[in-house]
Design goal:
The longest helix is centred in the C-terminal third of the chain and has 16 residues, at 62-77. The chain has helices at 5-15, 24-30, 45-54, 62-77; strands at residues 39-40, 43-44. Helix content is 56%, strand content 5%. It contains 4 helices and 2 strands. The two termini are 13 Å apart. By secondary structure, the protein is mostly helical.
Length: 79
């Protein structure tokens, strides 16, 4: 079982101090999710995480690699 998406989002915010403007809305939405099966408004948690990942190309480094892998694992777990 993976960690809650909100916890991963908190860690991303700590590691990525100046996130890409396009990733910010999805990062904020992820703070409200326990898992990719939750909904955020009319969006699925899965789509929020996928959109975050697609807008997080400039999030680099070891922490980024680990946190993105954790999000991808959460997506695969719930598939």
């Amino acid at each position: 079982m993976s960690r809650p998406i909100s916890t991963i989002a908190r860690d991303i915010s700590r590691a990525w101090t100046k996130p890409n403007f396009a990733a910010v809305p999805y990062l904020n939405a992820m703070r409200q999710l326990e898992s990719v099966n939750d909904d955020y408004g009319y969006d699925s948690g899965k789509s929020v995480v996928l959109y975050f990942l697609s807008n997080a190309a400039t999030f680099k480094g070891e922490a980024a690699k680990l946190l993105k892998a954790e999000l991808k694992a959460a997506l695969k777990e719930q598939a």
